[in-house]
Amino acid sequence: MEDTPFALRAGSSAIAKRQSVDNVPAALRAGSPSIVSPISASRPPLTRKNTSGSDRLSQLFPSRSSSTAPISPLDTPLLSKRNSFPSPITPPVDPTYNIPRAPAPPSFSDDTSYSSTPDAFSPTGAHQASQTRNGAHRFINRLASLRNPRSRGGEYNKLDDEESRFDRDRLGNVAEVDEPIGYDLSGIDGSISMDNINTRRGVLSATDAGGQEEDLNEAGYAAEYERLEAQLGAGMATVMEIQQPAGHGPSSREHAENGHRRVLSDPKIAQHEAEKTGEIVAITEITVDISDLTNDNHDMETRSALTVSQKDDNEKSYYFPPDPEKPSWRPFWMGWPWLSFLVLIALILAGLQEFICQLSLRKVREDPEGGLIQFTKAKELTVIAYFTWKYAPILFFIIYGIFWQITDFEVKRLEPYYQLSKENGATAAESLNMDYLTFMSWLVPLRALRHKQYAVIYVSLATLISSSLVPVLQSASVEMYPPRKERKSEGMKSIRIDPAWSRGVTVSLVFVAIFGLVLMRDMRRKSGLLSNPKGIAGIAAMATKSHILTDFRGLDTAPLEKIHKQLRHRRYNLHKSALWQGEFIRNSTEKIPDTGSDPRPLMLRLRAGIPYICYLFVFMVAIPSLLFIKGADIVVEKLPFLLTALATAVKVLWGTLNNDVRMLEPFYILAQGHAPPKILTLDYTGTNPIFLPVEALMNKHYLVSLVGTGAIMAEVLTVCVSGFSVNGQKFIAGHGGEGKTEEDDQWDRANTDQTFTSFWTSFCLSIAILIFLISVAVAVYLRRSHKFMPRQIGTMASVLAFIHQSKMLVNFVDTEEMDSSQMTRHLERKGKTYSLGWFSGRDGDDHCGIDEDPVLAPYQYGKDWTKTRLLGHQVGTWEHY
Questions:
Q1: How confident is the model over 631-673, as pLDDT tens digits?
Q2: pLDDT tens readout for residues 347-378
Q3: What is the pTM of this model?
Q4: CA distances from 155 to 44, 178, 183, 690 (A)
Q5: What are the start and end residues of every segment in region (Disordered) (predicted)?
Q6: Taking burial as the number of CB atoms within 10 A of a residue's CB, which of 342, 461, 628, 849 is the most buried?
Q7: Exposure of 393 by Cβ count < 10 A (0-12 exposed, 13-18 middle, 19+ buried)?
């Protein structure tokens, strides 16, 4: 042991000694022989250990303490590690504290190029000669990769491990797929297989081209929707908002114990500001406490500490400058040429009626037995002469009444817009909540008088007089001489005009002409419309510029009286063909009308429909009873206008039913779901009643066509029953009365103003018309009497409440200048359908109204769909378990 060198005695025995050990300096041979590590030992660990080399030895050899010598990682060779152990004879000094050594930084080989045949035994630190060789080898490999099948196939840029080998052993009875792991190593080599990318693109294009195109279209639609939605209420950007706490004049000051408050509440000043600037002015009523300013020592800090009480946007007042180019669109039926024509016709008819009356009186003075026309038997007259005397006058008056009905429909439909276009606008009761079309026609003048809308009063009175009163009076003005008891079969009969009834006709026509003249004067007002606001689309196009729809929040299914209650605190304006909020009314004195909660118009309810159908049936039975029952003909003899009056009542009530069905048709189609775009511009209320049946038939709205035809038939019914003042038994074959005794001559067929043909034609036509009306009425009440709407329709407010949160509003941005035809084409290009039901609104909540499909659920009367739906934020709450 003594012959052994100290260095060899200090360490453990050598395991192996390399041939080049003699060349190693002596200092390095002081420890145990080092073991050369393979290249894998020089790789950095996958997970970093927070221990130094000496700490690792302490873990392997617990009897030894960790080394405290600060060894730099740069002193450690890269190719091998030499573990030297101090001699056990000299124990190490225990340090006072241990400093953990930082782990060695990872080392990489100089050659990082891709190699198809990896060499696991190549040294990490290569010399310059090896670097040159590796550079040439890398260049050759890159050239080879251009044609290498692995670079073109599925193995390129894949991790070359055991799992990616195609010649690996397979599991028995198991279907395996050769799918190498797709690790992207292209960043190391720098080469990219474009063929592989193009191949994948080709596969993707072949399989998902339709899906990508659909995604692009949806993205385009979403971007367009966001752009249009941002333009809703864009007109508010031009509003000049003024918050002026100071009053104008001492009258605006209110003295109190705690100080003084001044309130800006003078609309004249705001209106003057709007006229001066030419912009819409919005003023919020604010109250400023200036009690501190009464002291003499106030300063700027005191001013900044004023207490300001500002109301929300719902209490802002808007004032509008005068529009020098205010549009004044009106239909032809409301223009001065048409009204002048109606006035002229009324004056001509009044003059003609008086002329005929005077002619009849002159004929009587000349010949006491004479008259306008003389004959022995009515059948002796020519067809033209008989028709001119018997049917032409009343037929002409009925046609004239239809002309006035056309104007009546248009004036009632557009009067709310005339009210809105006034300088200061109108209240909701006078405009948005006004409904004349579904109201009883003979009560319309009273409602219009209450709101001082004189144009409606004039046109309603003119229509009622010309279409209802004048035909009745004219029917009673024509009489046959001599009286029935003095007539003889072979005696002369003459047609005379009763002066009293005739003067009634003349005066009525003069009143119609006067109403027409004042209506012409009233129609000089400007409507503020650029085109015909037909249907739902016409109203929606006007509501996209301002924030008027915010006033309808929470009114989805509210009845009309609740809508009126919420809107009565504001005036509304029609400015630049757009609906705007106007002046805020704090203390409204308007009474809320009690319209009830029934969503159906009165004539479409069974409590009105059943009595009306019964009335039609009774009238149909009364006609043959009064004509063929002996002794009953005395009623029509004493009251020759009775049947005409009864037929006029049928016509007036049917007209109300007709208006209700015409108004309700678009909403009924929307309630069925998936309505085409043209339904939004459908408006039968503005359609000429003569052309209505044809137009509805072309649109395949058969019930509307039948009801419109019934309205025309009701006019014909009035003409047919006007001549029923005879004994019908005399017109039965063989019972004409010829050859009877003199007592029966007064009932002879020859002693009446009817012929056999005219009597049976009028009788059969009257019965057929009544059967037709009864059948159509039954169909109407079977199809339209149920409740499929949340409230009554017919007002602008009802429509605005239906669409105030609809997503379809973006389709109406910048469309207020389109007419109905352009609007229809615009909506049809969108390719959407529309429904009435529950939908998710623009605010994210569920609403009931009209929107584009798909909707969440159809509407059912009396059922709140939102209460049957569990939303995401309700899951887990105590109400739902």
A1: 777 787 778 788 888 999 999 999 999 999 999 999 999 999 9
A2: 999 999 999 999 999 999 988 888 888 888 87
A3: 0.68
A4: 27, 10, 10, 81
A5: 1-134
A6: 849
A7: buried
